[in-house]
UniProtKB/TrEMBL annotation:
PANTHER family: URACIL-DNA GLYCOSYLASE
Name of the featured protein: Uracil-DNA glycosylase
GO cellular component terms attached to this protein's record: cytoplasm
Catalytic activity: Hydrolyzes single-stranded DNA or mismatched double-stranded DNA and polynucleotides, releasing free uracil
Active-site residues from the entry: 65
Keyword DNA damage applies: yes
Subcellular location: Cytoplasm
EC numbers on record: 3.2.2.27
Functional summary from the UniProt entry: Excises uracil residues from the DNA which can arise as a result of misincorporation of dUMP residues by DNA polymerase or due to deamination of cytosine.
Recorded coiled-coil stretches: none
Top-level EC class: hydrolase
Keywords: Cytoplasm, DNA damage, DNA repair, Glycosidase, Hydrolase
NCBIfam families per UniProt: PRK05254.1-1 (NF003588), PRK05254.1-2 (NF003589), PRK05254.1-4 (NF003591), PRK05254.1-5 (NF003592), ung (TIGR00628)
């Protein structure tokens, strides 16, 4: 199957694209987009891979589902386009960066600059029907994104995986901890953050410390 994805990822993931489940997933997504309003736009489904090529990925942040409100999702987990109101989880991410790195709260919620520095902003499910959270789960996306994580684990070394919340933490089973770094905390959603499970995790400074210790440029969060 021909999938429009960055060439570096195409090379790594072609075996997945050729599997029966992916053909079924592609058919499902095509039908959903033809009959319903879905997010993100078709051309943004693989946006995370466009901005963070396989060999340039240094950090991986795992989300669950794209935002399902109008104008929010654009293919990068937790990110919204410039000018769009910041969702609650993103607000808490920026607040943690404020206290961790003493940086001002940003005007734009667009995390593309992170992605362009090698932060793979990966949702486990890459599409969603408008106003219906989780509507495209268990259709094959998770099989594909699990394979992405496994491929990074096997083929790369010294990556930093940020696993926020119970769903993301389960992905640790796919990662070789002898080759990579895993930082875990509660989810940045208000439910988790207000219970003291998010704020103070210092994941952004810790990630930069790990990168620097390994001779890599820190991320400008």
């Amino acid at each position: 199957m021909n999938v429009d994805i960055h060439p570096s990822w195409k090379e790594q993931m072609q075996p997945e694209f050729d599997k029966p489940y992916f053909a079924q997933l592609a058919a499902f997504v095509k039908e959903e987009y033809s009959k319903n309003t879905c997010y993100p736009r078709g051309k943004d489904i693989f946006n995370a891979f466009e901005h963070s090529p396989f060999e340039k990925t240094r950090v991986v942040i795992i989300g669950q589902d794209p935002y399902h409100g109008p104008g929010q999702a654009h293919g990068l987990c937790f990110s919204v386009r410039a000018g769009v109101a910041h969702p609650p989880s993103l607000i808490n991410i920026f607040k943690e960066i404020q206290s961790d790195l003493d940086k001002p709260y940003p005007e734009s919620g667009d995390l593309t600059p992170w992605a362009d520095q090698g932060v793979l902003l990966l949702n486990a499910t890459l599409t969603v029907r408008a106003k219906q959270a989780g509507s495209h789960q268990n259709k094959g996306w998770e099989v594909f994104t699990n394979a992405v994580i496994r491929q990074l684990s096997v083929k790369r070394e010294g990556l930093v995986f940020l696993l926020w919340g119970g769903f993301a933490k389960k992905k640790a089973a796919l990662i070789d901890e002898s080759r990579h770094y895993i930082l875990t905390s509660g989810h940045p959603s208000p439910l988790s953050a207000n219970r003291g499970l998010w704020f103070g995790n210092k994941h952004f400074s810790k990630t930069n410390e790990i990168l620097s210790q390994n001779g890599h440029e820190p991320i400008n969060w």
